[in-house]
Amino acid sequence: MASVSVYNIEGKEVDKLELSDSIFGVEINEHLVHMAVVNQLANKRQGTQSAKTRSEVRGGGRKPWRQKGTGHARQGSTRSPQWAGGGVVFAPKPRDYSFKMNKKEKRLALKSALTSRVQDSKFVVLDELKLDEIKTKTFKNILNNLELSKALVVLADNDENVMLSARNIPGVKTALTNTINVYDIMKYDTVVCTKDAVAKIEEVYV
After folding, report:
1. Beta-strand relationship, 190-194 and 151-155
2. What pLDDT sits at residue 205?
3. pLDDT tens column, 177-205
4. Confidence at residue 13, expressed as pLDDT on a 0 to 100 scale
5. Cβ count near 128 (within 10 Å)
6. Which residues contact 44 (CB under 8 A, 6 or more apart)?
7. Long-range contacts made by residues 74-82, C-beta under 8 angstroms, separation at least 24?
8. Beta bridge partners of 18
9. Tens digit of each residue's pLDDT (9 = 90 or more) over 2-16
10. HEC states along the chain?
11. What pTM does this model have?
């Protein structure tokens, strides 16, 4: 079992926590991690880009000059791709970029991402994260105490004071245990979890 230090919001170590090997100690599958990131980015694409081919551009119905005898190359239409105002050769059209991953693949990718953060010592556990009021400066001071800048903060429950305090800090994102994903885990330098959030992750993703 992997063991990590538990810190308070002052940045002092107050305890040790044993992490479940079934989630934080799996064999890392880099291929699935990459696939999960590509999947998430592909699924976010709108796919609404569009340009006109030569058959869709207005005009160009008549032959600009006769076939032979002009000294010019033969031309059939002024809307061919080589003409200014002509169509696009392989014009992009609306399409769906999304693809599916199996549930087991998604789950293993998430476990691999969490394991990699633990192995790289980029997984920080807090005993608790409570704020009396919505105050960005207070949350920034907590990050400074932990010597963190770019972090994904995972909470067990929807705490509005914490979420709104972190919202305006560049490079910081808050998430609940049921909304964490491989892309965010790999994007941010450090994953910060409360003890309650770790327990919930171990309960849900086992």
Report:
1. parallel
2. 81
3. 999 999 999 999 999 999 999 999 988 88
4. 87
5. 11
6. none
7. 79/54, 80/54, 81/54
8. 3
9. 788 899 989 888 888
10. CEEEEEECCCCCEEEEEEECHHHHCCCCCHHHHHHHHHHHHHHHCCCCCCCCCCCCCCCCCCCCCCCCCCCCCCCCCCCCCCCCCCCCCCCCCCCCCCCCCCHHHHHHHHHHHHHHHHHCCCEEEECCCCCCCCCHHHHHHHHHHCCCCCEEEEECCCCHHHHHHHCCCCCEEEEECCCCCHHHHHHCCEEEEEHHHHHHHHHHCC
11. 0.82
Show the domains of the chain with their CATH numbers.
Answer: 2-45+99-204 (3.40.1370.10), 46-96 (no CATH)
What is the sign of the dihedral through the CA atoms of 102, 104, 106 and 112?
Answer: negative
Q: What is the pLDDT of residue 15?
A: 87
- How many Cα atoms are found within 13 Å in the side-chain-facing hemisphere of 134? 10
Q: Which two tokens stand for residue 4?
A: 């990590």
For residue 90, which amino acid is it? Answer: F
Mean pLDDT, each 10-residue run in order, the chain (206 residues): 86 89 92 96 94 93 93 94 94 95 95 94 92 92 91 92 93 93 94 92 85
- Amino acid making up residue 29: N
Strand-by-strand arrangement of the 123-126 sheet: 13-19, 2-7, 123-126, 190-194, 151-155, 172-176
pLDDT at 2: 78
